[in-house]
Design goal:
Elements lengths: L10 H9 L15 H17 L8 E4 L7 E9 L2 E8 L3 E5 L7 E4 L7 E6 L7 E5 L14 E4 L7 E2 L10 E4 L7 E5 L11 E5 L7 E4 L5 E9 L2 E11 L18 E5 L7 E2 L10 E8 L7 E10 L20 E9 L7 E2 L12 H8 L11 E4 L7 E4 L3 E4 L7 E3 L6 E6 L7 E5 L2 E5 L7 E2 L12 E2 L6 E6 L3 E6 L15 E2 L6 E5 L6 E6 L3 E6 H4 L18 E2 L18 E3 L7 E4 L3 E4 L7 E2 L25 E6 L7 E5 L4 E4 L7 E2 L9 E7 L7 E6 L9 E5 L7 E2 L9 E6 L7 E5 L3 E4 L7 E2 L9 E7 L4 E6 L4 E5 L7
Antiparallel strand pairs: 1-56, 2-3, 3-4, 4-5, 6-7, 7-8, 8-9, 10-11, 11-12, 12-13, 14-15, 15-16, 16-17, 18-19, 19-20, 20-21, 22-23, 23-24, 24-25, 26-27, 27-28, 28-29, 30-31, 31-32, 32-33, 34-35, 35-36, 36-37, 38-39, 39-40, 40-41, 42-43, 43-44, 44-45, 46-47, 47-48, 48-49, 50-51, 51-52, 52-53, ...
Length: about 800
């Protein structure tokens, strides 16, 4: 994660990383790396959906009705006494309400990307709405955008209006009187260097764009504000960054391009205005805002990478891992009273004198946790330049220009957007990881739009209970389960509230087929649990946290150990209950582990199945994300001990003797990408299917293969699938020629073994299908989506003549 500061000690490691090419070893170049490819592919997808023989089959929403997804921004269109609120979601599109939050309607859900970075309404015309696709917060699961979209009819219709290859849009600023003049800030591609970064301007309503501020292929604009008294004066915050598979985006050695720039001529020329800010080599993500009542006053919220306090004894990060390095100074707030000629730090720090309380200093140190690159949002009260709001893990207010802060309570954590009513600053609209919240009393109390957008599910597992229950882990909420009730009829499955279950925010689940109260979870970089849900009962529906800390009744937590070696496990680490013996459990790290005692004891049954390249592993470092790990693991349902394992660095292995010997299959697969699924056939012992995703390479190629000879050769099943990533592939339990696939566009079916694909079902919004399961007993197909919750389909309808 991110504390840094044996920061100086990591210079050599990062220098080595910077010399590496970004694609994984052996990766092939894909024509899908350009977002123009994705736009064309989406047009193909829509044509396929309209002509699909399955278009009349409905997807039925399962919920959760009590959980929303990550919201990124808020915009407001006022017409006299009427108000429309727009809420933008990280992967759930854009929604509107015309009745102050009582009811909501999706207005942007059928486009090539429904990942939203920012939304803006033209001040001079409330019917003009701009939507910037591509979330700029750069979570590992963030999805790329396909440019900027414009509506001139109050969000009834949208037209793609350029900037296609930005991938992320962090801010849209519209001229106050001329709606044709618009400025857009983009941080660019998440995982690769690219030229489409910086500040862009249109003067003809989006027909053409010019890049008015640019620094380099790794430095983009993360924030942008306009002087309310002079629309030719703007301030831009530049951020030098890239995501790596083994590290969050952060300041690396040699970075010196992050900072704040100012233009007074509408973007024709820019000058640096950094005096008083931390040195460029320490500047991470920086958010800015300008006072509407005194435009000479601006605030900058800086993620400062200079060395801070040392770790405390036994201090751990949010995932229970020991913190062994000094923290960085992290969240700091600066103010200017002279239009950014000079800045001064106004927030307290540990090193300040005694008049600053230790409590306030420590507050800033932990303001953004270890995720300063996710936040960086600050707002100034439109009527009072001394009242500001800062967004991090919590939403905070300061009434004394940043000297002291109070925490606003009553909403979900992890805050990304705030709109303050310019006529009545008591009214606040907030966007956070739990969705959209609003307050009418300056944050004393909050209301929640529970039914808007949907949960960001990473996965789905099904149990054997009656009615069947679906399990999944939800971004920043934890693991939940919900009933799929067929009692009202197979065409009237109700959407329901879901309850907390075993596991945490990032967890795979496996349910004992003999007893559906026994649930295994594996995730959070290798935290394994076996939980007896009958012993602990439901833990409530809550909306916060979700990391499942602390002991609970009925929980066994035994992590495999290798003496003298640190185990590596992905965020979503695989866990498998053997289809031949429910007491046998497999878990994936860089090794495959097996327990024949339901997780009570483990044995290692494989060598390291990854590349094991030390240059791509910042082990024991605060910068580390476990990488070179097993991400896909499965045992054949037809042959005990026939096990396949795929890794995040694109390696594939098989054992046919329960781990005694392993054969590498990597050279036999045409592409080298992150393995999202390995699926041994239930119909033929020698057949296996594999799916790969190129998301971590900014790659939209289609990678799905079949082998009929235990992996000796592989044949592509991409056929007419319009684009990837392919997140999941599954077999039909009764037909070897029928397969299902989930991509970032939706769900697909083939009845000819992958020779041709059709869009499966109708009415599904454009959304990432992150997982798919077929419940053979009930003949129900369930998909997990990353941004719109879960859906079910009556599979019996697929078999009707």
């Amino acid at each position: 994660m991110r504390r840094s500061s044996s920061w100086i000690g990591l210079v050599a490691a990062f220098a080595a990383l910077a010399a590496l090419s970004l694609p994984p070893l052996g990766a092939q170049s894909s024509p899908g790396a350009d977002a123009e490819y994705l736009l064309k592919a989406y047009d193909t997808y829509r044509s396929m959906a309209e002509s699909s023989p399955y278009r009349a089959l409905p997807w039925q929403y399962l919920g959760p009705t009590n959980i929303s997804g990550r919201a990124t921004d808020v915009a407001v269109a006022d017409r006299g006494e009427s108000r429309r609120i727009y809420a933008a979601y990280a992967t759930g599109g854009v929604w509107k309400t015309d009745d102050n939050g009582k009811t909501w309607q999706a207005v942007f859900e059928h486009h090539a990307s429904t990942s939203i970075g920012d939304i803006a309404v033209a001040p001079s015309d409330p019917d003009i709405v701009w939507v910037g696709t591509g979330e700029a917060n750069l979570f590992r699961a963030s999805m790329p955008g396909t440019g900027i979209y414009k509506s001139t009819d109050g969000a009834r219709t949208f037209t793609q209006s350029g900037l296609t290859d930005t991938h992320t849009i962090s801010r849209i600023v519209v001229h106050p009187t001329n709606a044709d003049i618009v400025y857009v800030a983009s941080t660019g591609h998440a995982w690769t260097d690219n030229e489409t970064r910086g500040v862009f301007r249109t003067t003809d309503g989006g027909r053409t764009w010019s890049k008015v501020l640019y620094r380099s292929p790794r430095t983009g604009a993360v924030d942008l504000v306009m002087d309310p008294s002079d629309p030719d004066t703007l301030y831009a915050s530049m951020w030098q960054r890239i995501r790596r598979k083994w590290s969050d985006p952060r300041v690396e050695p040699g970075y010196d391009e992050s900072g704040i720039l100012k233009t007074t001529d509408g973007g024709a020329t820019w000058s640096e205005v950094d005096e008083g800010l931390p040195a460029a080599r320490f500047r991470g993500r920086t958010g800015i805002d300008i006072s509407q009542s005194n435009p000479k006053v601006l605030y900058a919220f800086v993620d400062n990478y200079d060395e801070g306090r040392p770790p405390r004894e036994n201090e751990r990060d949010a995932y229970g891992r020991p913190i062994t390095e000094s923290r960085i100074k992290a969240a700091e707030i600066y103010r200017t009273d002279d239009g950014a000629k000079t800045w001064r730090k106004v927030s307290p720090s540990v090193s300040d004198d005694a008049k600053v309380t230790a409590q306030n200093a420590e507050f800033m140190s932990g303001h953004s946790g270890t995720y300063g690159w996710v936040f960086g949002q600050i707002r100034v009260d439109p009527t009072d330049p001394d009242t500001i709001y800062s967004m991090g893990l919590r939403l905070h207010a300061s009434r004394d220009a940043g000297t002291t802060f109070s925490q606003l309570r009553g909403m979900h954590v992890d805050h990304h957007g705030l709109w303050i009513d310019p006529e009545n600053p008591q009214i606040l609209y907030n966007a956070n990881d739990g969705g959209f919240y609003w307050s009418e009393d300056a944050g004393k109390t909050w209301q929640f739009a529970a039914s808007v957008a949907g949960a960001q599910f990473y996965n789905v597992a099904l149990d054997t209970s009656t009615p069947v229950r679906a399990y999944g882990s939800i971004q920043d909420h934890g693991s939940y389960r919900g009933r799929i009730d067929l009692g009202r009829g197979r065409d009237r499955i109700p959407a329901v509230e879901w309850e907390r279950t075993a596991g945490g925010e990032g967890s795979h689940h496996a349910v004992d087929p003999r007893n559906p109260d026994i649930v295994y979870s594996h995730g959070f970089y290798g935290n394994f649990t076996r939980e007896d849900l009958a012993r602990r009962g439901a833990r409530g529906e809550g909306r916060g946290g979700g990391r499942g800390r602390g002991p609970r009744p009925g929980v066994t937590n035994i992590r495999p150990q290798v003496e003298g070696e640190e185990l590596r496990a992905q965020w979503m680490a695989p866990i498998v209950v053997s289809p031949h013996d429910p007491d046998t459990i497999y878990a994936g790290y860089q090794y495959v582990f097996r327990s024949t005692k339901r997780g009570e004891a483990w044995e290692r049954i494989s060598p390291d199945l990854t590349e094991n390249d030390s240059d791509q592993m910042l082990l024991r470092s605060s910068n580390a994300i476990p990488y070179q790990t097993i991400t896909a693991l499965a045992e054949s349902p037809r042959a005990r001990g026939l096990i396949y394992a795929g890794t995040d660095d694109g390696k594939l292995h098989v054992t046919r003797d329960a781990g005694k010997t392993w054969t590498e299959l990597t050279p036999n697969v045409p592409s080298r990408r992150w393995y999202s699924r390995v699926v041994p056939s239930r119909h033929d012992e020698a057949t296996v299917y594999v799916a790969q995703r190129g998301r971590e390479d900014d790659d939209f190629g289609v990678y799905v293969y079949q082998s009929r000879d235990y992996g000796k050769t592989f044949t592509s099943l991409a056929a007419n699938l319009p684009a990837g990533p392919v997140n999941v592939v599954r077999e039909d339990p009764s037909s070897a020629d029928t397969l299902y696939a989930g991509t970032d566009f939706g769900a697909f079916i083939t009845n000819d073994g992958g020779a041709s694909w059709q869009v499966l079902g109708g009415g599904l919004p454009s959304t990432q299908v992150s997982d798919l399961q077929y419940h053979a007993r009930d003949n129900i197909i369930v998909i997990a989506t990353y941004g719109r919750g879960m859906y079910a389909m009556d599979a019996l309808l697929l078999k009707e003549p």
